[in-house]
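Usage

Read records sequentially. Each one opens with the input sequence:
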Amino acid sequence: MELGTERIKSLFMLDSNITCLNHGSFGACPKEVFSSLVKWQETLEKNPVKHLAFDVFKYLEKSREALSLYVKCYKDDLAFFPNPSTALNTVLRSLDLQKGDEILTTDHEYGAMDRAWRFLCKKTGSIYINQSISLPLNSREQFLNEFKKGITKKTKVIFLSHITSPTALIFPVKEICDIARERNIITIIDGAHAPAQLDLDILDINPDFYCGACHKWMCSPKGVAFLYVKREFQAQIEPLVISWGYESDNPSHSQFLDYLQWQGTYDMSAYLAIPDTIDFLKKNNWDVVTQECHKLNIWAKDKILSEMGMDPLCSDLFLGQMSSFYFKDPMNDQSQIDFFDKYQTQVLFTLWNNRSLFRISIQAYNNKQDIYRLIEALKDYQKQARV
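and closes with the structure output:
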């Protein structure tokens, strides 16, 4: 399959005048999937009371079943959330952390979650430890050896990104979950970027908690994430919002679902579009698309490093459909806006460990011309910055 062809681009709703190399931030919705969202919104508005008070729960079950087959776990161990941050905050606020308990993570984590953990630690007296993982990352052994140095007798939780946001690295989370289980340490995996970028098998990874986004690489409508909780931990989960599911008058077979599926009135249409989203992926051979995107990402990474005179952050072993690069010039929110306005090219610029990075994301609608266009823009930007 040739990526970035007019046929593939026509499946998406993206503005044809821009070069989108930042699918990883918020995804992009295909026209067919967006139509499913609208269909469900129309269903809601035709009979809001019937839909929200009665029908929505059977539709949610169908969506959970479709998603559970896709990410390989049991449907009643999944609950939908509008985004990974909300899902993970639900887990964090449900933990029984005591003063001195240690939460071990890396220095590659998503900034919003670093903030959530620091907030919780201020309240509980627990300690959030960002273990340094040096770059370039060249082997699994390097990662495991460096990460394990942070494990102590006080380590109660390991929190780890499956694919990191700033550095775009695929971490060996299965091996870490195995190590944690041997030491009776709770594992929480932030898999926001994993579904449809990786062949995700949650039961094989065997974490205690796993969160993923559907609106990124699965291309669902915006506002769809999921939380998987291993059965023995579900009784500990407390809802962020107390509503009718708490001490329910009509409890279902699952307190976990009662607590999390209904937290007040809101439009769940994006959740209900998940079966159609997965049908779109299957119909368009997305397993093959993902492999081709990976190949293009590796080519793009090598081309950018060569043309820009940069050093790699890792070996190809740790890359999926994203790559990050050191950038010599400092970037802030305004300069990122200026870059897009001038070059109509969208990449993610971020600050990580006091160094500027930019990250590319390769999706089906991208091709080599997009990378050449980016390189020209980067060179011109750096030239202008030095004038």
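Summary fields computed downstream for this record:
- The domain at 35-280 is CATH 3.40.640.10 (Aspartate Aminotransferase; domain 2).
- The first helix runs from residue 6 to 10.
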